[in-house]
Amino acid sequence: MKNLRVSLVQGETRWHDPAGNRAYYADLIEPLHNITDLVILPETFTSGFSNDAIGDAETMEGPTLAWMRERADSIDAAICGSVQIRADGGVFNRLLFVKPDGEFHFYDKRHLFRYAREHERYAAGRDRLTLDWKGWRICPQVCYDLRFPVFSRNRFNVEREGMLDYDLLIYVANWPSARSYAWKTLLRARDREPVLRRRRQPRRHRRQRPELLGRQRAYRFHGPSAQRSDRRGSRFHDPAAGRAADRAPRSFPGNARRGQLRAEVNPNGGCVMRAAAKLRKPLFGRVLKKSVHTL
Question: What are phi and psi of 71, to 5 degrees?
């Protein structure tokens, strides 16, 4: 398994402006050509998270899937993010995972946020998605799915013989700042699995409520958050170490050293962070090394 380079894109999503958002995110994505394998966009990145946006929901023949195919081909990397999609008599919060050759997979958000009456407007998905990309098994989920750990359970010898269900777990979300404590707590609870977690919150227009904040996180199995970014209109990049993900749980008991983290901040406000984690004598006689580099 080779390293997987993952880029997390956090931007100022325009409220109810699909065409404007596609143009805006195209500009953020284009510089990632040849330096990434996977680009992760926000939940409902064409409109912002809105129950009222379902009136403009697209079909799978609509412009956003075609746009994602064009962008994926242009930068030679996979792209994922969620969009309101009308299908099978309802509107789904559908995460699209699009590869450079035009092949795509989709996952419909399973757990709808009832406190915001999302379940009254959107249809719930049913099945979890796992897919293969660049030799990695990936499980993408959306926002409130984070609250239900059984749905992201990483089982051994179930979906893949002699292996865990997935190597990489991704969340895209729009999470209100008023519930940021719950967000951080749930992420820390989920990071007992080897995961990369991604959160993106747009700055809300004055007409929108509640206020949402932009925070991206990448977690490793051993130790605290490896990366974070709170700047909007930013990207950070993670060349995750190959095989680290599916080894960590089997090598966990009693032999892990906490990773060391170093951050360098340049005068322009950019941040480069490097982290390393090692296992002294992991089970099965394997040594785990992981490095993280953010751009």
Answer: -65, -40
